[in-house]
Amino acid sequence: MTQQGAVLQGYNNELVKCIEDLCMQKEELNKQIRQAEEEKNKLQHEIQVLSEQLECVCENLAQKVASRNELDKILAETEAAYMKILDSSRTLLNVLKKEVGSLKHSPDLKTHVT
């Protein structure tokens, strides 16, 4: 019986050792879980901050694109108006040259000029 008691005591000691090892593994896992949860929370916060920044940048970009499009429209209208002014100026200059040329050949002008 004493030998059986010693064997039983050996099993008991081994069982206690296994339970202690499992408890230590559980504590290590709990520590890793807490660290992972902290990292997850930190990353989620960073994602939230970056999402808000991205939203602001997108709004700002949309406003700038709209402003650029409006400037493109104004610039195109201004260039078209300027081209009309140039064309009118060229036409006016041609008419004026023709009139001056015909005045030079007019007999009335020749008598008054000399």
UniProtKB/TrEMBL annotation:
It comes from the Eukaryota. Keywords: Coiled coil. It comes from Lonchura striata (white-rumped munia). GO terms for biological process: axon extension. Residues 19-60 form a coiled coil. One of its GO terms (cellular component) is ciliary basal body. This is Sjoegren syndrome nuclear autoantigen 1. The keyword Coiled coil applies. InterPro entries: SSNA1_fam.
